[in-house]
Amino acid sequence: MTEQSPTTKEEAILAEIDSFAELPDAPPKRRIRLSWVGKLSVAIVVFWLIICVIGPSIAPFHEMDMDGDDGFLGYHANEYGTFILGTDYLGRDTLSRIIYGARNTIGISLASTVLAYLMGITLGILAAVKGGWIDMGISRVNDAILALPTIMLGLIAIAWLGSSIPVLIGTASIIYASSVFRIARALGQDIMVQDFVEAAKARGEGVWWVIRAEVLPNAAMPLATDFGLRLVFVVLFISSLSFLGLGVQPPASDWGSMVRENLQGLTYGSYASIWPAFAIATFTIAINLIVDDVSAKSGGSLATKMV
């Protein structure tokens, strides 16, 4: 067996160094790039969020003022002011009630979705990391909630506890936390078997460090995408309850209840029930378009929209 010369040894070392030099650089910091449709959708959502905050201060009338000459009138003006979108069945300004209703509809839905995510992610990641009887116990309770229709659960809760804003928020958050739990648990179980998590465990890192530094950052993008879709579901759920008369109670305005109250106006050619339905549609469709643009469901992969 011949011994390698010093020159050959140096060439082998240099070749090994060059092999490491071929490794790709760390990915650059990522930011979301939206198409013009996504940017327009963001503008619509931001518009409604601003209306939620400052709406009552810029509304032409108070939501309970019956200053119209009659119900189901179109565009008209009187000594009290101009009714741009007409009046509802009690002679109240439709535009003002839509502005006031945005705070109730979007505010309740957003609070419910945030609370649902706090509960669902906490329990889902806990079940994925701990496993065993903790995972089994939480999952079986969650399966029982998922097995029942959401509207039925909402009707039962409101019939038992009564209709109020805290009850609506609590009911919607518990119902939709079950779906968030399922997604968070699946993501957590997938991440926990990855090599970087095993390496962290081998280093002696604790459970909470693994959750904070490894699981949550890698699950953030799918959960953020699902947050938008879940918010749409909650908006429709709250609006459905209000349409059935079990949501926000009169005389407070709410988009769902406004549709129900003014349905009879369609026979008189009034659009009082169309405008709140249009408000619901613009908000929910805009969120769907943002989610679709970010997740690139209509073309390409998510990586093509990240830099």
Please give a structural write-up.
By secondary structure, the protein is mainly α. The chain has a domain at 105-306: MetI-like fold (Orthogonal Bundle), CATH 1.10.3720. 67% of the residues lie in helices and 2% in strands. The chain has a two-stranded antiparallel sheet. A hairpin with a 2-residue loop joins β1 and β2 (81-83). The chain starts with 5 loop residues before the first helix and ends in a 12-residue tail after the last helix. Residues 19-29 and 297-307 have low confidence and may be disordered.
Give a short overview:
The protein is mainly alpha-helical and 307 residues long.
Globular, elongated, flat, extended or rod-shaped: what is the shape?
elongated
Structural class: mainly alpha
Total beta-strand segments: 2
* CATH superfamily grouping of the domain at 105-306: MetI-like
Can you write the helix and strand succession as a string? HHEEHHHHHHHH
Largest sheet: 2 strands, antiparallel
Mean pLDDT: 84
Instruction: Report the uncertain regions.
Output: 19-29, 297-307
Provide the CATH architecture of the domain at 105-306.
Orthogonal Bundle
Strand content: under 5%
Query: Total helix count?
Result: 10
Strand order of the largest sheet: 1-2
> Share of helix among residues?
55-70%
Please report the distance between the alpha carbons of the first and last residues: 53 Å
CATH topology term of the domain at 105-306: MetI-like fold
Radius of gyration: 27 Å
CATH class of the domain at 105-306: Mainly Alpha
